[in-house]
Amino acid sequence: MKISIKDVEHVALLSRLELTEEEKQEQLRELNKILDYMEILNKVDTSQVEPLAHVLPLQNVLREDELRATLPKEKVLQNAPEEDEGMFKVPKIV
Amino acid sequence: MGQYEVVIGLEVHVELKTKTKIFCGCPTEFGGEPNTHVCPICLGLPGVLPVLNKKVLEFATKAGLALNCKIAEFSKFDRKNYFYPDLPKAYQISQYDLPIAEQGYLDINVNGQTKRIGITRLHMEEDAGKLVHQGLTISSSNSSLVDYNRTGVPLIEIVSEPDLRSAEEAKAYLEMLKAIMEYIDVSDVKMEQGSLRCDANVSIRPMGSKEFGTKTEVKNLNSFRSVQRAIEYEIARQIDIVEEGGKIIQETRTWDENKGITLSLRSKEEAHDYRYFPDPDLTPLVISREWVEELKAGLPELPAFKKERLIKEHGLPEYDAGVITSSRALAEFYDKTVSLHPDYKAVSNWIMVELLKLLNAENLEITDSKITPQGLAKMLKMIEKGTISGKIAKQVFEEMFNTGKDPEVIVKEKGLVQISDEGQISTIVDQVIANNPKSVQDFKAGKEKAIGFLVGQVMKETRGQANPGVVNKLLKEKLTKL
């Protein structure tokens, strides 16, 4: 399966990446290379195999409904580029 | 507008009332200072490992069972990817192709008709944070503030089939869903606090058509009333467009409660592309049938069954039974009161008339009032014994509602005991007869109704405390002797 420059632009938008024309071309080549590699895996007959939900043979890992310590507010906001009234300040949305 | 059929499906989010969040031990409590109910897990900091809260699985499974769903034997969590600042990880942990429950239904009652509404699926997911917009509206604000306290609060999303055919049916469905969640005790289901949220998918099609029309999704429905109003508005808007030869655009619209209209919410994002994939941080769930059966056996009597029982066994009118069972607290109040005073009709009447009147007047929930089943039962016994009249009882009831005092204490304090002493009443009856010759004449002339006026006068004289039976008897005796 080959992807087009349109697919690259779509994926870039979803990832909030701004790419130059040159970078788009480069991504196109790179992504197609990865997809070519996947083609090898596609040769395996998986018609009788259930899709894998998890790579480890684990199931039902659950915790009790018990309170644990929360993070102090200074730490919560430590990485906030901007803050106001104890909240994260973010640029205009919508 | 008879030539259009309305098609509605609802997506309902219910916050589960666990102590802690779905994947970490932070409190789920509503309110709280911004960003104080958070930890590295719900903030999505690198290197953390979410682990599912056992109670969430239990509550979601119970909800699925109460909605007559098939509970999955194998279920898993997936990542739903999108950028929005209320989502710190840039993905929401949700369930995609293997939800915990599918293919259920619930029955609604509209205009005396029972209708079965299909439930497509029910899945578990985490809630997002809250955006506080600076500026007057979303679009006029230059920046937003984010509070992550709600991030990771457990939710179940319940998706209905497009089986609803009117705004009224949609409201009835939501009310029944709320009642069921309340009965099984998995959520506070308070729309005003956001623990019950609803989005509506609305479309119209020519009557008789099998194909669905283009739908719009209406959001920001914060009360039962707004659900109904917004859907009614949206139906009218769509019909107008089609009548004028236009085309409905598939889009998300927001309900503006003040203006009473829906507005387009155009997003910059292209068509939704969530790129779901299994969350590698969480292990799959294998749900044992024994456990499911155990939960099923532990479910309480649900509203529809309770309603049937009140109609069949207690002889209540269908409407009254429906109202009483629509809220768990009201149904429990009724149950407790009749267990102390098994006069079903009297208990139901006092709840339907006096209690609901007082609750509605002050916009209270029954749990906010001071009235107790013990108090009501005691008061009804006092009426039965003739200690107080039904009329005085209304006064006593209101006092109990406001203060929670014992009815006997109220009656004593206010001197409201019914006067049944014939000697005492006789004197007053004589006075009334002497003071109202016109009515006496009327009665004598065969106007039976005149006696009602005279009874009223005696009651007035005694401030409503005279036993009406005794008053009637004495008046008749004395008048016929005249």
Give the SSE map.
The complex is a heterodimer of chains A (94) and B (482).
Chain A (H helix, E strand, L loop, with lengths): L4 H10 L6 H22 L19 E2 L9 H4 L6 E2 L2 E5 L3
Antiparallel strand pairs in A: 2-3
Chain B lengths: L3 E12 L36 E2 H13 L3 E2 L2 E2 L2 E4 L9 E4 L6 E10 L2 E14 L3 E4 L9 E5 L6 E7 L6 H17 L12 E11 L9 E6 L2 H20 L8 E5 L4 E4 L12 E2 L6 E2 L2 H9 L5 H10 L5 H8 L2 H13 L3 H19 L10 H13 L4 H14 L3 H8 L7 H14 L1 H8 L5 H12 L6 H14 L1
Parallel strand pairs in B: 13-14
Antiparallel strand pairs in B: 1-11, 1-12, 3-7, 4-17, 5-6, 5-16, 7-8, 8-11, 9-10, 12-13, 14-15
Helix pairs in contact in B: 2-3, 5-6, 6-8, 7-8, 7-9, 9-10, 12-14, 12-15, 13-14, 14-15
Task: Give the overall shape of chain A, derived from the CA principal axes.
Answer: flat
Share of residues in strands of chain A: 5-15%
CATH third-tier fold name of the domain at 1-41 in chain A: Histone, subunit A
- The amount of helix of chain B comes to 25-40%
Low-confidence residue ranges of chain B: none
Give start-end ranges of low-pLDDT stretches of chain A.
none
**Strands of chain A, total number:** 3
Structural class by helix and strand composition of chain B: alpha+beta
| First-to-last CA distance of chain B | 68 Å
Features:
heterodimer; A: 94 residues; Histone, subunit A; 3 helices; 38% helix; flat; B: 482 residues; alpha+beta; 3 domains; nine-stranded mixed beta sheet; 40% helix; 20% strand; elongated
Note down, in words, how this protein is organized.
The complex is a heterodimer of chains A (94) and B (482). Chain A has 94 residues and is an alpha+beta fold. Chain A has a domain at 1-41: Glu-tRNAGln amidotransferase C subunit, N-terminal domain (Histone, subunit A), CATH 1.10.20.60. In chain A, 38% of the residues lie in helices and 10% in strands. Chain A is built from three helices and three strands; from the N terminus they run ααβαββ. Chain A has helices at residues 5-14, 21-42, 73-76, and strands at residues 62-63, 83-84, 87-91. A two-stranded antiparallel ribbon of chain A has the order 2-3. The radius of gyration of chain A is 22 Å and the shape is flat. The two termini of chain A are 35 Å apart. Chain B is α+β, with helices and mostly antiparallel strands. Chain B folds into three domains: 4-291, no CATH class; 301-414, no CATH class; 422-481, Arc Repressor Mutant, subunit A (Orthogonal Bundle). Chain B is built from 15 helices and 17 strands. Chain B has helices at 54-66, 167-183, 224-243, 289-297, 303-312, 318-325, 328-340, 344-362, 373-385, 390-403, 407-414, 422-435, 437-444, 450-461, 468-481; strands at residues 4-15, 52-53, 70-71, 74-75, 78-81, 91-94, 101-110, 113-126, 130-133, 143-147, 154-160, 196-206, 216-221, 252-256, 261-264, 277-278, 285-286. In chain B, α5 packs antiparallel against α6, α6 (318-325) crosses α8 (344-362) and α12 crosses α15 (468-481). Chain B is elongated, with a radius of gyration of 29 Å. The mean pLDDT of chain B is 88. At the A-B interface, α1, β1 and β3 of A face β2, α1, β10 and β17 of B.
